[in-house]
Amino acid sequence: MKILVADDHKLVRDGLKPFLQELAPDVEVLDAANMDEALAAVAGAEGLGLVLLDLMMPGMDGLKGLELLRAKCPDVPVVIVSGFSSRDHVVAAVQAGAAGFIPKTVSGTAMVNALRLVLSGEKYLPSSTFFEEPGSQMSMPSSMTIRPTGVPAPFDKLSRREAEILALLVEGRTNKEIALCLDLQEITIKVHLRNVYRKIGAANRAQAVRIAMSSGWVPAGAA
């Protein structure tokens, strides 16, 4: 499988390659530093299975670059990988046809898990898309509801806080990082995680991540 990494920073392109090679034993990573190079690579690549696209790469012209790539390879998932991951950025990208949106702040493990989800036919969105800041009146747009039929069992048993914590766990965050993100004590995170494991039938954090990723769960309907 060929994967195109379109990003104007060579350090980013080179840094992603070892993680992308975990997706399959025969992965070949192609490079593009601007939109013209990306379009040329897409046109000439046989067996292209995935495109990672920087939101602010030269030639993107907003999201027109994404739309051009989608027109060239409509059957190939295009995932935005960006340092800009506000809700507005994510919503606009998905509405323009992105198969996922991965912030550049996530860990390599979380990125690989997210890309496996995309390659399985699901969409991946960062947890910040689903959980508004305290006091915010924003609600998740209906166009972002990936599973309109509701939260799959056993995830329907999770409280909102437990769903938040599980979403951050899937992103590869440590207990300390989750505690800082949610302004909670680390011991509180451990207690919530024990409840999460019990409710979804996981023995540990690795198994919880695997169950969440394999089910295609997203926290959109968390209570």
The CATH architecture of the largest domain would be 3-Layer(aba) Sandwich
Number of domains: 2
The low-pLDDT segments are 131-149
Q: Tally the helices.
A: 9
Specify the CATH class of the largest domain: Alpha Beta
The total count of strands amounts to: 5
| Integer average pLDDT | 81
Measured by DSSP, the beta-strand proportion falls in 5-15%
Tell me the span between the first and last alpha carbons: 39 Å
Helix content: 40-55%
Compute the gyration radius: what is it? 18 Å
Trace the largest sheet across and list its strands.
2-1-3-4-5
Write structural notes for this entry.
The modification 4-aspartylphosphate is found at residue 54. Keywords: DNA-binding, Phosphoprotein. Residues 2-119 form the Response regulatory domain. This is Response regulator transcription factor. One of its GO terms (biological process) is phosphorelay signal transduction system. This protein is of the alpha/beta class. The chain has 2 domains: 2-125, Rossmann fold; 148-221, Arc Repressor Mutant, subunit A. 43% of the residues lie in helices and 11% in strands. The protein contains 9 helices and 5 strands. It has helices spanning 10-20, 35-44, 64-72, 87-95, 108-119, 160-170, 175-182, 186-200, 205-215; strands at 2-6, 28-32, 48-53, 78-82, 100-103. A 5-stranded parallel sheet has the order 2-1-3-4-5, with helices on both faces. Strand 4, helix 4 and strand 5 (100-103) form a beta-alpha-beta unit. Helix 2 packs parallel to helix 3 (64-72), helix 6 (160-170) crosses helix 8 and helix 7 packs across helix 8. The radius of gyration is 18 Å and the shape is elongated. The N and C termini lie far apart (39 Å). The model is unreliable at 131-149 (pLDDT under 50).
